TrEMBL record, chains A, B:
Record-linked SUPFAM superfamilies: S-adenosyl-L-methionine-dependent methyltransferases
Pfam families: Methyltransf_17 (PF12692)
Protein name: S-adenosyl-L-methionine methyltransferase
Record-linked InterPro entries: Methyltransf_put, SAM-dependent_MTases_sf
Length: 161, 161
């Protein structure tokens, strides 16, 4: 498999999973996108969830201008500062769906990121809430339901609180 | 169509076209990749064309380490300096296949790039040689054969000298 094949597989898995999750999301609760990047998955989320409130967390926004969320929905800064403030504001269990894609090429850094993020994610998710992640997480009060989604194993990880 | 859909379409068109061209390439002649980027299309080209000489032109190499061409095949610098030297060295008509993907988001800059690049490309291509391009080119001695390739119209452009 070439890197071109692999990029196509990764983006296709991402799309399939966003489609899967947005068709199953509970009618109540906020949607969170961790990492705006170039705004592709945010654009997909908002097209699939018209009218839903989608909050985006990004350290250094650099997306295509069409894909920048309206002001109150873009939270600029490090997620480890922004998420605790967010939980204070909206309360534990405020989120119906969280998509996290803030990993880099550095596997050790990603592992540490996941460890630090895990308690915040558990705090955010409502019962039945879904987490989509670009890597595995250890979440005591969530169930790994990746295999229920039909997305190729190891490409993306899905948890239900 | 979301930006995620559109990215998948673009990469898929790129892969289909590289597969189309590499299965039709003439047995003689060099392969040129203008723009290494993250190395995805270079990786695909080399996997489809084992044993062929593939020259890559890149102003500022920043690809994944696995996707950096071996030293004599990576020509670092501006294509407008590197290509004339290349033609001096290997002669007119040295190339069987050229893939060019050096456009940016700036449409006016891309138009100018294409105008400056056109005479160099015509000079490089052997009779029957193929040009794959991320945008349209005006090439007096080439035929636009994009519609023969089956790739969605307007996604990619193909010319035969
Ligand atoms: C891979 S990109 C996201 C791509 C996006 N999902 C898409 O498909 O377009 C990761 C993004 O996460 C951001 N990021 C990484 N670590 C972060 C952190 N600790 N806090 C906030 N943003 C972060 C980076 O700046 C980058 O834009
Ligand atoms: Ni635009
Ligand atoms: Ni690697």
């Amino acid at each position: 498999m070439t890197r071109l094949d692999s990029a196509i597989r990764r983006l296709t898995a991402q799309r399939d999973l966003l489609d899967w999750a947005t068709s199953r999301i509970s009618p109540q609760g906020l949607v969170l996108e961790l990492g705006l990047g170039n705004g592709r998955t945010y654009d997909h989320l908002r097209s699939r969830l018209p009218g839903r409130e989608i909050y985006v967390f990004e350290r250094s926004p650099a997306a295509h201008p069409d894909c920048i969320p309206p002001d109150p929905y873009l939270l600029v800064g490090d997620v480890f500062e922004a998420l605790p403030r967010f939980i204070e504001r909206f309360g534990s269990g405020c989120a119906a769906l969280v998509h996290t894609d803030i990993g880099s090429g550095d596997e050790e850094a990603n592992r540490q990121l996941a460890r630090r993020l895990a308690p915040l994610l558990e705090n955010l998710l409502q019962p039945g809430g879904l987490l989509l992640a670009d890597r595995a997480f250890e979440l005591a009060c969530c169930k790994d339901i990746s295999s229920e989604t039909g997305v190729a194993e190891g490409r993306y990880f899905v948890y239900r609180r």
